[in-house]
Amino acid sequence: MTERPLRFGLIGTGRIGRVHAASIAADPDSTLAWVCDPIVEGAHAVAERYGGTVTDRADELFASGEVDAVLVASPTPTHVELIERAVDGGIPVLCEKPIDLDIARVEALRPKIAASGVPVAFGFNRRFDPAFASARARVAAGEIGDLEQLAIISRDPAPPPAAYIAVSGGIFRDMTIHDFDMARFFVPDIVEVSAIGTTTFDAGAREHGDFDTAVTVLRAASGVIVTITNSRHSAVGYDQRIEAFGVDGMLQVANAGTSLVSLSTARAVEAKPPYEEFFLERYASAYAAELHEFIRLVRGEPSTSPTFDDGRAALILADAAQRAATEHIVVQVDLA
Amino acid sequence: MTERPLRFGLIGTGRIGRVHAASIAADPDSTLAWVCDPIVEGAHAVAERYGGTVTDRADELFASGEVDAVLVASPTPTHVELIERAVDGGIPVLCEKPIDLDIARVEALRPKIAASGVPVAFGFNRRFDPAFASARARVAAGEIGDLEQLAIISRDPAPPPAAYIAVSGGIFRDMTIHDFDMARFFVPDIVEVSAIGTTTFDAGAREHGDFDTAVTVLRAASGVIVTITNSRHSAVGYDQRIEAFGVDGMLQVANAGTSLVSLSTARAVEAKPPYEEFFLERYASAYAAELHEFIRLVRGEPSTSPTFDDGRAALILADAAQRAATEHIVVQVDLA
Amino acid sequence: MTERPLRFGLIGTGRIGRVHAASIAADPDSTLAWVCDPIVEGAHAVAERYGGTVTDRADELFASGEVDAVLVASPTPTHVELIERAVDGGIPVLCEKPIDLDIARVEALRPKIAASGVPVAFGFNRRFDPAFASARARVAAGEIGDLEQLAIISRDPAPPPAAYIAVSGGIFRDMTIHDFDMARFFVPDIVEVSAIGTTTFDAGAREHGDFDTAVTVLRAASGVIVTITNSRHSAVGYDQRIEAFGVDGMLQVANAGTSLVSLSTARAVEAKPPYEEFFLERYASAYAAELHEFIRLVRGEPSTSPTFDDGRAALILADAAQRAATEHIVVQVDLA
Amino acid sequence: MTERPLRFGLIGTGRIGRVHAASIAADPDSTLAWVCDPIVEGAHAVAERYGGTVTDRADELFASGEVDAVLVASPTPTHVELIERAVDGGIPVLCEKPIDLDIARVEALRPKIAASGVPVAFGFNRRFDPAFASARARVAAGEIGDLEQLAIISRDPAPPPAAYIAVSGGIFRDMTIHDFDMARFFVPDIVEVSAIGTTTFDAGAREHGDFDTAVTVLRAASGVIVTITNSRHSAVGYDQRIEAFGVDGMLQVANAGTSLVSLSTARAVEAKPPYEEFFLERYASAYAAELHEFIRLVRGEPSTSPTFDDGRAALILADAAQRAATEHIVVQVDLA
Q1: What is the C-alpha R_g of chain C?
Q2: What sign does the dihedral B289-B294-B299-B301 (CA atoms) show?
Q3: ipTM score of the complex?
Q4: Superfamily (CATH) of domain B126-282+308-332
Q5: Nearest-Cα residue of chain A relative to residue C233
Q6: What is the nearest CA distance from A239 to chain C, expressed in angstroms?
Q7: Subunit partners of chain C (3 or more CB pairs within 8 A)
């Protein structure tokens, strides 16, 4: 740790960009050197709090010679171009998911990244959640024997605005994408996808031809079956659970409760409130760990950062699920 | 309750037949009048404990004029003929699931039963489990608002012998059939079935072309999605859970623990042993309630006994799942 | 088990008497031969259901020559005389707690019982509760190392009528007596008693100078400290828990929940209703086990039935607690 | 919050002093201005990390004119003199518990503090634990009706060194002191104390005539009974629980688990590891809240900081418990 902190250029200062800014400032191995947002007020607000030179043009950031790594938290359609520019400049990049909504653009970018040798990582933060990481490590350590079934439950507290739905690429590419990566975190070799989607409560989803509820089932070459249960709403709060079932037992990751206090009365035994609020709180430590793992990757240390190919695989699965749910078929996939 | 107890003829004295014999003897509204089994030693053993005249020929039982109702617990291939004979004789019948492994024979029997007016009920005992019944009643009472997703987890402790697998009709018709009925207990209007089956641990299943692990997803006309997770084994013990997710919340049915005692040490907090042992124990009270509900049906009182059409619907879903899993397709069904 | 069933004479057919009648009838090793109650209608009601000759005079029962054992479930003031008569007749007796409210009468009876060699057992049914028995066995097996602290929580759902309080001997002799025996089940060698009682909610207790709330602390010669927490009411339901704390860990016995179903909503995660209802339900299996253990004692088989000296020790502790709470002192005791 | 941050002088840079230094640095309303420790290396280490001028003499800190408040985290025997000096200088002080081991010195200091009007607060951090604070607020809000019994369980993971025991003042003044304050947080009007202490496992405690295990029972004028269960060790980890029992129900504060992951196997259902590690982790947020509440006190804003009289009351209760346990008596106390 005697190395000098990594100087980050942050592109995008929306909600998730601000989370990363805070992580960069808090990690002793990184500093915020440049902050870029076309809505320059956002960049100024971030820089005032965490430091960094402000710009509204990514060009300037890349040309500065003052950034050792770029963190891309801008809207999805800008990701491919910004990754390309970073790789061209030999600058490592940590990019928010998804790479793009169009797999063709992803495939086109793939050879360049492979050839470049420049570290490129993707923001699948849940891999770094202590509970999920521990469950996966314990499965890998054989605590439940061979894995046979994996159930991922992932429900958001409330649906996003209709305007967001319109450009999101649909529930599978926008929301389930995290669960596809989580599935592959435990079981990389997925070969078959089936999915059912329905639209029962969200007017925004209905308006834009999207689903608000979905169940996706994945089959791995090894025979492991993964079930992903999604909903765009959850009265109970953010519902993020995993159940790994194996030959010798079962590992369960429960929701994060927010209180140690429970009340028993004549009517009931209750703990309130039910679950941890939304994702910034639930995954706060995961974002910090994700950043630090990327720093290790940049430094050439052993790292478990999700790769470009992890990002590509998640998108292929999302496309397959979208097709399965829309056409009522089972879709075979090749993630190689 | 001033009516005289119902005189039962029991056909079949294997494991499940003996459970029913005990229930008949214990219910103040029923007595065991005749006991039939071609392996007559079994019939004698039951009659010694719970009373009743013994025979190895069903003919004799039907001709006796001493049975008010028949309980069919013999092997599946005999069910259709025994039901038919009972109905012809005007004798109400409670038959163990499934009706038959061949839907064609079920469809052929259907009009006769409908025309006869004789009460025919099927042994989907889980509807009578206090926990599942309570969850369903609470869903119906609106405690979680409109139902959107239902997850049924159903895993047996250990696979049956290969010889049983050979004549079982496969995991969907033999094991999931209970879960199909449970699905319809909550959500009757199923229209679409997808299913993935794998064979990862059981040599008997492999030998007979069966699956040992399966996930089935059902879509209802209303948009509700049902997920059924099955395994032929479970190191943890009999794993029988339900999660009903609705607009306003979630109802969960946990596994039945067998101990109030938990141990905390430097390594862990543990409760042992994990779950209730196999189905006779887990569903003991359900079998008794099932019998009593059938008695009410016979007496013309309001009853929730599963009907012939419930048995037929479960078999149609099982056939559809078998096809979906084998051909890797999504299957549309019509339960009308 | 080829011995002929034990013929019981039951004296007293109030609530607890009827429980014992049902246990006697259900145990294959016992039958109900005689039923006695001065309110002879109660005896008739029991005999109609479980069999037995009816009388309103205990004399007749003892003189019949048809009882192999007596179960005394009559009011406390009759216990000493009935025990004495049984012992004089060489008839084993299982007597409900407490022996008597006056320790002098107990001490006076003690030598006769010791000299007689007739089996005399007391109804401390909680020793036979599967959870408590398991916890004690696991402590004895060393699962938590040397025991250091034991916490017993024992709260009734609601206070008894004032008329019952008037003759109960006070909370320590009437209610805590069970907990004193439970304390001694884990830690026999108690040498010191302190107790605080208050009267905060029950008019009946106030009227008769009794406490409705109490905490008793016992010190054993070995240094183990036992804490007993009592209340005459509990909105949550019957509250019966134990926590055994040792060098290597902790064993906890939770309350018996009555449902596997839990509801999660935007406000709370709740399981309802909270706890098992009153003692006949909570300890149903304990009463049956208690009876069977007594049958073993009568037959000369190894038995863990609580003895006369266990009943005496509990009363000595109750007297000490009463004095400690009333005089605000710490009381030394000698249970030898 | 437009006020300038409060400049703190920190006296004492041991374990707890460093916790406070971190809190002072992290709170936007405070800065670390001076750091004092006779072992000046400790002061330098703190100042390097969190800022501040270093000295080994408290005189210099007080004379600097650069501290708006003093945080006393030095050894107990120095507390009274440092508080006095701060009050003489009109400087608010937040002092670690206990005030002193000698109640006479505390009583002597009391009038001066009362007369001075200088804010003096004590470090009973547990009042600021979110779970305990919530439980107390919910009791105050009437969620369980009138409070009748309060159980505090407080066990450390492992005993301190014998050298620490020697100067600690004994378990009641050193460890239970926190629980006495917690008892008074819920029930201020304590009038009676009984206590049993034993020494069963710790050689250090035995050597210095101290107890390693204790149960203390407090009675309030209102009739509420408080039970405090202590041990100097706990294999399970830091054991910090509260159970408040009232007319309408019960509020329970569970131990803080460190993992959302649980494992079910053929033998058991277990969550590991059991409980949150030691107090700096368990009460991290409490220390920060405690500091902030003191800042509010200094600024004249409404504050719930424990007062000098709270510190005095806890010591009186500790003295009473020590006497009760040693002399085997019940002790009446007057906290007015």
Answers
A1: 20
A2: positive
A3: 0.90
A4: Dihydrodipicolinate Reductase; domain 2 (3.30.360.10)
A5: A266
A6: 11
A7: A, B, D
